[in-house]
Design goal:
This protein has 450 residues and is α+β, with helices and mostly antiparallel strands. It folds into two domains: 221 residues, Periplasmic binding protein-like II (D-Maltodextrin-Binding Protein, domain 2, 3-Layer(aba) Sandwich), CATH 3.40.190; 140 residues, 3-Layer(aba) Sandwich (D-Maltodextrin-Binding Protein, domain 2). It is built from 18 helices and 21 strands. The strands form eight sheets. It has a six-stranded mixed beta sheet, sandwiched between helices. It has a three-stranded antiparallel beta sheet with strand order 12-7-13, with helices on both faces. Strands 6-17 form a two-stranded antiparallel sheet. Strand 9 and strand 10 form a beta hairpin. Helix 12 packs across helix 17, helix 13 packs across helix 14 and helix 15 crosses helix 16. The radius of gyration is 21 Å and the shape is globular.
Length: 450
């Protein structure tokens, strides 16, 4: 589907931003039908792109691979992208074209959902609150006996992810491993990610997740909204944990462009980021007062095409884990606060550590290597240039942005209590109980040296 908005206001605007007009105005951006594409839709619908002198076409893509190929080939000038995609390209997966991420789309926003059959088997292993509801967060240790039951019955336990280099893949793997379940290794000669697995992960496009769960082809999945809430509303699944409970205020998608585009069109790049920052500010303004309106916009077929109520179920400060079990999760979707739009190097490094942990990065790398790759892909310098121009134009305040940041978030503990510090990636890897540490590699389906 396609949405266009001509820059009708461009000729009426003046000021510092218009001293350097975009070198190129007509652009096509790709997205996947997920709630966290919201900054793109809002920047278009509220006229922020137009006010920056841009004529933007938004095109929904069939899946993440198609979207990534579109950016790499230049058919798309930019896109909402999985944070791991530009990093994967930077370390040799896919095209040689460099992709940069000067903007973080959001924090949080994913969930892990299991089928009602699996939940019925998990429930006896989950402690209850005084009112009879399950205590959260629910760990994968409650799933482990179910996986064992399936194995005893000769049934393989399959779960869905949206892409091998997705946040969802790494979050699901983290949750499973924290509960003692092996999610499988990758190897140079085996890209399945299922070597030694207790739970077998495979790719399904986000909008198809609920139907695949209902058909019994998957027993659970990790996906962004609204596709967890859609399964709950249909009565075919129960969401057992959100990514906020795995890692509070974890990074999610990025807005990515080819590096040669950014170098050739710096004014256009600044204009794009200005519009996206303004959209993110609107989405989080006044304690999420605009979220209901945003859910209505996103419900349109051109964007997500799901009921506004299903989108709003997780976008307005609540999350429904199972039918009737609605709980407050005020930061489930964050678009601007907590410096959500700033592209932290430490966010990139976490993804790289998970690629190494599960074998997508086959060999041990130095700490310096992690820092170099992160700095090559994540570009806070470009982001802060756009932010400063908004401040100069009176559209934002200097306190809205982390100008004093060195690009690294403060160390934080994840679900299993293990602290992540992006400054010391190898020490972090060595602290994880399951996965590749030190110089360990996967050779012929086995981890060596032991």
């Amino acid at each position: 589907m396609t949405r266009r908005f001509a820059p009708l206001l461009a000729l009426m605007l003046s000021g510092p931003a218009w001293a350097q007009e975009p070198e190129i105005a007509e652009l096509t951006f790709g997205f996947i039908k997920l709630t966290d594409m919201a900054p793109l839709a809002i920047a278009l619908e509220r006229g922020y792109f137009a006010e920056e002198g841009l004529e933007i076409t938004l095109e929904a893509q069939a899946n993440w691979r198609v979207l990534g190929d579109g950016v790499l080939s230049g058919a798309l000038q930019g896109a909402q992208m999985l944070a791991g995609q530009p990093l994967a390209a930077a370390i040799g997966y896919g095209s040689d074209a460099r992709i940069v991420a000067p903007f973080s789309m959001d924090l949080n926003g994913n969930g892990i959902t299991v089928s009602t059959e699996v939940w019925d088997r998990m429930r006896p292993h989950v402690a209850s609150m005084a009112d009879g509801r399950p205590q959260h967060p629910i760990g994968a240790d409650a799933l482990a006996p179910v996986v064992q039951e399936f194995r005893a019955q000769g049934r393989r336990f399959d779960m869905g992810i949206v892409y091998p280099f997705s946040t969802h893949n790494y979050e699901l793997r983290y949750w499973l491993a924290a509960g003692g379940l092996h999610p499988g290794f990758y190897a140079p000669d085996d890209s399945s990610g299922q070597i030694g697995a207790d739970v077998f992960l495979s790719v399904t496009p986000p909008p198809q997740m609920p139907a695949t769960l209902a058909a019994g082809a998957l027993f659970g999945y990790c996906v962004g909204e609204p596709w967890n809430q859609a399964a709950v509303r249909r009565g075919i699944g129960v969401s057992v944990i959100t990514d906020y409970e795995i890692w509070p205020n974890n990074p999610e998608k990025v807005f990515a462009l080819r590096a040669d585009f950014v170098e050739a069109y710096p004014n256009t790049t600044r204009a794009i980021l200005r519009a996206l920052i303004r959209a993110a500010m609107w989405l989080d303004a006044d304690d999420n007062a605009n979220r209901a309106a945003a859910a209505e916009i996103l419900s349109r077929p051109a964007y997500i095409g799901a009921e506004a109520g299903i989108i709003a179920a997780s976008m307005t400060g609540t999350f429904e884990y199972e039918p009737g079990d609605v709980r407050a999760v005020p930061d489930f979707n964050v678009f601007f606060r907590h410096n959500a739009t700033y592209p932290y190097y430490s966010d990139a490094i976490w993804y790289l550590t998970q690629m190494r942990r599960w074998g997508q990065i086959a060999e041990a790398r130095s700490d310096a290597w992690y820092h170099e790759v992160a700095a090559r892909v994540y570009r806070p310098d470009i982001y802060l240039d756009a932010a400063q121009s908004l401040i100069d134009d009176g559209l934002a305040s200097v306190t809205d942005f982390p100008f004093d940041s060195d690009g690294y978030r403060a160390p934080a503990a994840l679900l299993d209590g293990i602290v992540y510090d992006g400054r010391t990636p190898n020490a972090y890897l060595d602290s994880l109980p399951l996965g590749l540490t030190g110089t360990r590699r996967v050779i012929n389906g086995e981890v060596a040296p032991r």
